[in-house]
Amino acid sequence: MKKLIALYGIYLLLMVITYSCSIEEDYQITGITLSGATIGQRGVDLPSNYYVATDTFTRDIVFVVSYTKQNLYSMNAVVGEKCYALSGNKNYIYDSLDVMKFDRPFTYRGVTFPANTNILANWKIRLQVAVFESNMVFDGRGGEKVFEFTPDFVSNAVFEDAPYNVTFTCFSSDNQKFEKTISVRFPNG
User: Fold this and answer.
1) What is Dmax (Cα atoms) for the chain?
2) Which of 87, 122, 157, 189 is the most buried (most CB within 10 A)?
3) Which residue ranges of the chain lie beneath pLDDT 70?
4) In this structure, are residues 74 and 23 in contact, taking their beta carbons and an 8 Å threshold?
5) What is the pLDDT of residues 146-161, one digit of tens each?
6) Looking at 43-108, which runs of residues are DSSP E strands?
């Protein structure tokens, strides 16, 4: 019995040493990726939806922002070594400063929105966008932030049948600006 307790104690010690520095929150955001998506399977709530990458929106309009992260810790696997922080400070994204622009005009409920308008700053459109965090794996990356447009927006928005460049910009707490542009289509009808 003593051997079993000693073996279990060693196991617990190894678990503490191995996982002591693997806290997911200890990272710095160093970039973003923007992707277009469609709902592959609807879950019981928005964060549990399953999304499929697309650049042509026919049923739903969803944009997924993935963060590129650099871990701020390291650990030497030698027993007795401690984990230590790497250079750099943890940062976070200011959600209230998100910017999403289309390079072409579109119409929603009879109102035309000019090209390069920050649609997230317009309350009429912002009410039609569910923004939430998700820990899903999306297109081989983590999908940290999802912008899912409501069915009302999808059915009442009219886009030109031509490629749109969608630019997403966000700002971090350490004064970095991240910006990505993708090309998508909104076929009418």
Assistant:
1) 78
2) 157
3) 13-26, 43-44, 46-48, 72-89, 135-143, 189
4) no
5) 999 999 999 999 999 8
6) 50-53, 62-71, 73-75, 83-85, 99-102, 106-108
Residue 109 dihedral angles phi and psi, to the nearest 5°: 50, 45
Helical ranges in 97-172 per DSSP H: 123-126, 151-156
Q: Which of 149, 173, 182 is nearest to 55 (CA)?
A: 182
Rounded to two decimals, what is the model's pTM? Answer: 0.76
- Nearest by Cα to 169 from 113, 96, 71: 96
Count, residues in the chain: 189
pLDDT at 16: 63
* Contact in structure between 21 and 73 (CB atoms under 8 Å): yes
Please tell me the distance from the alpha carbon of residue 50 to that of residue 41, in angstroms, as a whole number. Answer: 5
User: Which residue from 28, 39, 179, 187 is spatially nearest to 98, judged by alpha carbons?
Assistant: 179
